[in-house]
Design a protein that fits this description.
253 residues; alpha+beta
């Protein structure tokens, strides 16, 4: 299998499959990012618009649970936006899960290398609360880091909450999120769960893209990574994320 074929096979997957590495044991992270970029090219060719990036596996607890020792970067397009109140399209998903995130909207271009958390945060216009719906194409969410990168970070959909504030007005390391399912709080975390501070995740995104000759562009959204563990999304349940200062949002599942 080559890069183009791997990208097409992942984009066309509507049921669980073996990870790419099962039949491609020499698959490495650089090749996986090439697959991810090719998948983005194919998505743009069918009319999707690039609107930002997401980080995955930014919390140490999640890295340990998934058996992966580094964060990853993936692309966001307009087709992945799930408006608040819109139902989760279960017929398009395999085994979806959801997690609360802090979402940055960039006010100016942010280019590495050498971006620090402070310089990254200075490029942010607004920060929002959000929920990401993830959905690995791989059986039982079992994969290597290159597999996850090639699969665009298990991306599916995301929603952004209604409250946006200037990041300087908050201590984002202390911004808390409560994850609620059917009226019960199932998990909670603060922004410190994301690389110690979500601005560190933003800096990581800029520096990772710089190694590929790319940058974060003005107006882009950056999903900084799950604050809590991801919980399964079951049809008919109600999932909500409540943030300390960034409001609440609910998924109709």
């Amino acid at each position: 299998m080559n890069v183009r074929e791997a990208a097409a096979s992942l984009l066309g997957t509507v049921s669980e499959r073996a990870p790419l590495s099962a039949g491609w044991p020499e698959l490495d992270v650089d090749t996986a990012y090439a697959i991810q970029d090719e998948a983005l090219r194919q998505r743009r060719a069918r009319g999707e618009t690039l609107i930002g990036v997401k980080l995955g596996l930014t919390s140490r607890a999640k890295q340990q649970r998934m058996g992966i020792d580094a964060p990853l970067l993936a692309w966001l397009t307009d087709a992945m936006v799930l408006p608040i109140g819109a139902p989760v399209p279960h017929d398009e998903l395999i085994h979806p899960r959801a997690e609360p995130e802090l979402v940055f909207v960039l006010g100016r271009r942010l280019a590495g290398p050498g971006v620090t958390a402070a310089t990254a945060l200075a490029a942010v216009d607004r920060v929002y609360g959000g929920i990401e719906v993830i959905d690995s194409r791989y059986t039982d969410y079992r994969f290597t880091l290159p597999d996850a990168v090639a699969d665009n970070g298990s991306s599916a959909y995301f929603s952004v909450g209604p409250v946006g504030v200037a990041p300087a007005s908050l201590d984002l390391s202390l911004e808390a999120a409560l994850l609620e399912v059917d009226g019960q709080i199932v998990d909670t975390a603060t922004g410190a769960a994301v690389q110690g501070h979500p601005a560190e995740a933003l800096a990581l995104a800029a520096n990772t893209l710089a190694a590929r000759g790319l940058a974060l562009e003005p107006g882009w959204l950056v999903l900084t990574g799950g604050m809590t563990d991801a919980v399964p999304l079951r049809p008919g349940s109600r999932l909500a994320a409540h943030f300390s200062h960034l409001g609440s949002l609910t998924l109709a599942t």
